[in-house]
Specification:
2 helices, 28% strand, 17% helix, Phosphatidylethanolamine-binding Protein, disordered N terminus, three-stranded antiparallel β-sheet
Length: 203
């Protein structure tokens, strides 16, 4: 006579092959993994110095042109509905917190985009319909580490999302970035990173 425990064990053993079959149906044996996303910023090698033309432009202070670089990505995950680009200065501890500098946050980049062209205009919304913000305002903010200190580490991150974000630009770049990052949670399909170094030339 079977006990209740034996019925439970028997049921589990019977169901196990079905669960295993379902798992194998989702992940075919021997199927190669999808290639990871790759991000490229035109004009300098990953980890190398960022050219002056992409740095901040401030007469008498910063010698750059304030020009945003061309950015491209490949190996987009299946199901991508939009992209988010985030550029940050890792060497800044803003207001004595863990917040770093928000140099450029661009969100709701169309799913069919392969990148962002050089020299994006100012304004809350870019020609492709995406939104932008930075610590300078509704525009790209180039690197601008002081000439008297060490080179700063600038990181470009691109995220592939399975949704389009319902986020409007906030009062400042940090509010915008926080809102974007909160809305992204649970929707990131892929990510790629590229970095550069910068320090203003000595006057």
């Amino acid at each position: 006579m079977k006990t209740f425990a034996s019925f439970v064990v028997s049921g589990l053993l019977t169901a196990l092959p079905l669960a295993t079959t379902a798992l194998h149906a989702q992940q075919p044996a021997g199927a190669p993994p999808a290639p990871p996303m790759v991000l490229t910023v035109q004009g300098f090698a990953d980890g190398a110095d960022i050219p002056i033309k992409f740095s901040q432009a401030a007469p008498g202070v910063a010698p750059g042109e304030g020009l945003s670089p061309a950015i491209n990505w490949i190996n987009v995950p299946a199901g991508t509905q939009s992209f988010v680009l985030n550029m940050r200065d890792l060497d800044v501890a803003r207001n004595r917190t863990t917040d770093d500098q928000a140099h450029w946050v661009v969100w709701n980049i169309p799913a069919n985009a392969k990148g962002i062209a050089e020299g994006q205009p100012k304004g809350a919304q870019l020609p492709d319909g995406s939104f932008q913000h930075s610590a300078t305002g509704l525009m790209y903010r180039g690197p601008g580490a002081a000439a008297t200190g060490p080179k700063h580490h600038y990181v470009f991150e691109v995220y592939a999302l399975d949704i389009k974000l319902d986020v409007a630009p906030g009062a400042d770049a940090f509010e915008s970035r926080n809102k974007v990052f909160q809305a992204m949670q649970g929707h990131v399909l892929g990510k790629a990173v590229y970095s550069g170094l910068f320090r203003r030339p000595a006057q």
